[in-house]
Structures are given as C-alpha cells and as structure tokens.
Write a structure and sequence with these properties.
- Strand 7 and strand 8 form a beta hairpin.
- By secondary structure, this protein is α+β, with helices and mostly antiparallel strands.
- 24% of the residues are buried.
- The chain is globular.
- The longest helix has 16 residues.
- It has six helices and eight strands, in the order ββααββαβαβαββα.
- The chain is 31% helix and 31% strand.
- The structure holds coenzyme A.
Length: 199
C-alpha cells in the first residue's frame, strides 16, 4: 500500500470512513467529463469508496494533513490503446503499460489554494520515479481552463485539440453534446530534465 506525503497533504488509498467527505464533492456540480461520477446517495458513495480503496497503488484520496479531511481525489489509469496493426497480427505480446492518464478532482471549497498542484506534482513524481511510468497524458476540455492551467504548471505539453471528440452528456432535446478536448502529455525524461534544471 502506497502513501505520498507533501507539505500540506497526504495522498493515501480510500477508506470506508471517507464516504461523507467524498459525498460533499461528488454530489456537487461536476464537469461534463465527470458526469458519470456524480453520486448523491450515501450508500452508493460508501460502495464507491470501498471499490476505489481496493486500488492501493494508483488511486488516492487527497487528505488535508491539518484536519484529516478528504478534499478530493487523484488517480491514474493505464492506457489500453493498442495500435490497430498489432490488434490484427498479434505478432508480439503487449508490453506492460508504461503510459498512464490521471484524473483529478477537488472539493470546490478547496479550489484556488494550490492543493491540486501540490497533489498532482507529488503524484506525477511518484508515477515516474516509483512506478516506472514513461509517459503521462491528460485530457482537458476546452472550457476547463483550471485543468489546462494545472497541466501547464506541471510542465505538460499541449499536444493537440480533438474537435467534437467525445460526448458525456445530452442536451435538452436528447442530442449528444460533443466536447472539444485538449490532450497534454509529459515524458519521464522531460520531468527529470525539469527537476534537474530547477536544482
Ligand atoms: C482542476 C482542479 C483540480 C484545479 O484546482 P485548482 O485549485 O484551481 O488548482 P491549483 O492547485 O493549481 O491552485 C490554483 C491556484 O491556487 C493559488 N494558491 C493559493 N494559495 C496557494 C498556496 N498556498 N500555494 C500554492 N498555490 C496557491 C495558486 O496561485 C493557483 O493559481 P495560479 O496557478 O494561477 O497561480 C479543480 O478546478 C477541480 O477540481 N475541477 C473540477 C474537476 C475537474 O475539472 N477535473 C479535471 C477534468 S479534465
């Protein structure tokens, strides 16, 4: 089981007792890309927290050191993308994933205090230096300037804009609402170069 400590935060696996804190931010307004993560029912939140707590390496509650309050979450999923050529030929075994995509979310009462950056910086460093990750990429929709800004502060390159890429919600007429989505990424060597140039 992993934990990560920063100046003001502890990132640790979820526990069932986190449910009330998680309900606070999962029941609030969420960006379209997190529409499926919205939870209002305390029993569902408890089940979700228990499920997320089973991943003790890549899924963390963001906890304020001074109070023990869970103020958000950060996790990373391995990229399952398989180039089409490989899929049909299966000439070689798929390598262990070394590319991960993070997801971050803070309780709105704790935005604008630098906690997301503090958590994400420590999490990226953990992924690159302790988990052998080679590349981290993130998606941010064009109106989600806070998330884009966070990617840029972390040193991620904006790699492109996917126009009308994906739909998470429907409009009043039931039509899918398509998002324009930026992709950001950073490689381990870029991360290490940044660290070295700061020292
Ligand atoms: C994306 C999200 C995590 C960003 O959170 P955030 O609080 O804006 O991010 P940061 O931690 O970078 O903090 C922002 C500001 O706090 C300020 N701040 C205040 N006190 C600070 C302190 N003690 N130390 C550092 N920064 C501090 C910083 O100046 C920073 O602003 P700047 O980067 O313009 O200088 C948040 O908006 C969120 O949870 N959104 C909803 C979920 C979501 O959209 N997820 C991503 C989907 S793609």
């Amino acid at each position: 089981m992993s934990t990560i400590e920063t100046e003001r935060l502890v990132l640790r696996p979820f526990r069932e007792s986190d449910a009330a804190d998680v309900l606070e931010y999962r029941s609030g307004p969420l960006p379209h890309c997190f529409a499926s993560l919205k939870l209002d029912d305390p029993d569902e939140v408890r089940a979700e927290v228990v499920k997320r707590g089973a991943d003790t390496e890549y899924c963390f509650a963001i906890v304020l050191k001074e109070s023990g309050k869970v103020i958000g979450e950060i996790d990373a999923e391995p990229s399952t993308y398989e180039p089409p050529g490989l899929r049909s030929k299966k000439t070689m075994p798929l390598p262990t994933p070394d590319t991960y995509s993070p997801c971050w979310m803070l309780n709105a009462s704790f935005h604008g205090k630098g906690y997301a950056y503090e958590a994400a910086y420590a999490f990226f460093d953990y992924l690159f230096t302790r988990k052998g990750v080679r590349r981290i990429f993130a998606y941010a929709d064009d109106y989600n300037v806070r998330s884009q800004h966070l990617c840029e502060k972390l040193g991620m390159r904006r790699e492109g804009l996917f126009t009308e890429y994906v739909s998470f919600v429907r409009d009043a007429e039931g039509n899918p609402v398509y998002e324009n989505t930026f992709q950001y990424a950073i490689l381990k060597k870029e991360w290490m170069n940044r660290l070295n140039s700061k020292t």
